């Protein structure tokens, strides 16, 4: 099977010009087929403040009301996405910017209201994805760059977790490609001590994961990545890496830096 690297870059890298430029240099240098999924960073919050659109969060998750879905569609799907594509083109990486609505690649369901109404937030399952157009782009040598947006099939855009989009794409494409899913952010990997950047846990399997959960070692911010990682591993994805954005190029080779999920 042909190798495919699916790489998600976090918002803290998007927000840091120096980290971002280094990441893009290394991402562009990755040979072969690759997909980039990006978060939104704090840009939507800043522009929302300028437009008088207040940001509301519950447990760190953005409440996406009618004004906010317009805002994040504009910022994530427009400004951030197209700036990344333009910068990759400058690095001779032939990229195309996409949301989940484009070519109906990532349809989603609006999250049901339970204790909390998250608004226009989409939940996606890998079996919902329409991978034909995506495979055609990859076979044509084009690098897709996805904003964290999906759609409900009825004309409504939905704000969707970028980690979940990355995991879902990895699972859906594992029927044709040997996929390595890489989560890149500002840390060197999963840390046993959130205050020590060098306390990297190099390998996590299901047993180790359960021990870490029971011992409450893991920070809240890393849990969604690990949940998505194990979801991918259990559904056909060969391997998942969580590590620093600076290590993205080496993490597409046999030299692994960060945390390997298996």
Automatic annotation (TrEMBL):
Associated pathway: Amino-acid biosynthesis; L-arginine biosynthesis; N(2)-acetyl-L-ornithine from L-glutamate: step 2/4
Biological processes annotated in GO: L-arginine biosynthetic process via ornithine
Site description Transition state stabilizer, residues in chain: 8, 225
Keyword Transferase: yes
Keyword Cytoplasm: yes
Enzyme Commission (EC) number: 2.7.2.8
Record-level Gene Ontology MF annotations: acetylglutamate kinase activity; ATP binding
Subcellular location: Cytoplasm
Reaction(s) catalysed by this chain's protein: N-acetyl-L-glutamate + ATP = N-acetyl-L-glutamyl 5-phosphate + ADP
Signal sequence annotation: none
Top-level taxon of the source organism: Bacteria
Annotated Gene3D superfamilies: Acetylglutamate kinase-like
GO CC annotation terms, alphabetical: cytoplasm
One Pfam entry name: AA_kinase
Swiss-Prot/TrEMBL keywords: Amino-acid biosynthesis, Arginine biosynthesis, ATP-binding, Cytoplasm, Kinase, Nucleotide-binding, Transferase
Positions that bind substrate: 40-41, 62, 159
Main location: cytoplasm
Family the UniProt entry places it in: Belongs to the acetylglutamate kinase family. ArgB subfamily.
Function: Catalyzes the ATP-dependent phosphorylation of N-acetyl-L-glutamate.
Protein's name in the database: Acetylglutamate kinase
Organism: Chitinophaga solisilvae
Name of the gene encoding the protein in the UniProt record: argB
